[in-house]
Amino acid sequence: MTDTPATPVPAHEPPYYVAVFTTVRSDDQDGYRETDARMEELVKEIPGYLGMDHAQTPGGLGITVGYFRDGDALARWRSDAEHRAAQRRGREQWYRSYTLHVAKVERSHGFTRE
């Protein structure tokens, strides 16, 4: 467990895009942690990347939301060769199932208690 408090990605000025990736993992997670860490490093290099939120339910549903300034940034991430290889390995090994939803954000705001 970490001492760092959870902090969501802040609201951004719309429009921007989100990619919502929901997963149920398989039992075979060999290499997942290292690849996940690499993907988090790699996506930060994409111009227009705004951040990422992660959540895991007690029942095993994983949710990752990636935020991108525009469709071009999202397309760059989708087509990155290393990311594509990780996607293939995910389908072959790490995931029982997944869904991907991509949406254009038209409204965004946030709140933080002092």
Automatic annotation (TrEMBL):
Keywords: Monooxygenase, Oxidoreductase. Signal peptide: none annotated. Residues 15-89 form the ABM domain. The keyword Cytoplasm does not apply. It comes from the Bacteria. InterPro entries: ABM_dom (IPR007138), Dimeric_a/b-barrel (IPR011008), Jasmonate_Hydroxylase-like (IPR052936). The keyword Oxidoreductase applies. GO terms for molecular function: monooxygenase activity. This is Heme-degrading monooxygenase HmoA.
